[in-house]
Amino acid sequence: QVQLVESGGGLVQPGGSLRLSCAASGFTLDYYAIGWFRQAPGKEREGVSCIRSSDSSTYYADSVKGRFTISRDNAKNTVYLQMNSLKPEDTAVYYCAADLDITNVQAMCAHVRVWTDYWGQGTQVTVSS
Fold it and tell me: What are the pLDDT digits (tens) for 20-29?
């Protein structure tokens, strides 16, 4: 089936690290822009980090810049989000999305509604002491 599946979430203490994975099946991610988004309780979904398909240009929200790293492994048809120095405010359900038509991830990562092709079901990240 055509789908994206997130994994790697869990409970971690402040300052800890997690690596999220977004695995695609039924299609290849090679030509898709990929975005990581998160939604905390009572808040709207927001763009966290995105990566372009062609040259792997990246975007990071100011809140995660310097702490999170997005990468892709086309051979594994998987995109990763390495999250370091986690803070309680990082607690959210994290989703990945893929879109064939998005070229400018710098401009579009923050616009969640533009990402329409494929979405995963999310993985919970909880940062708490």
Answer: 999 999 999 9
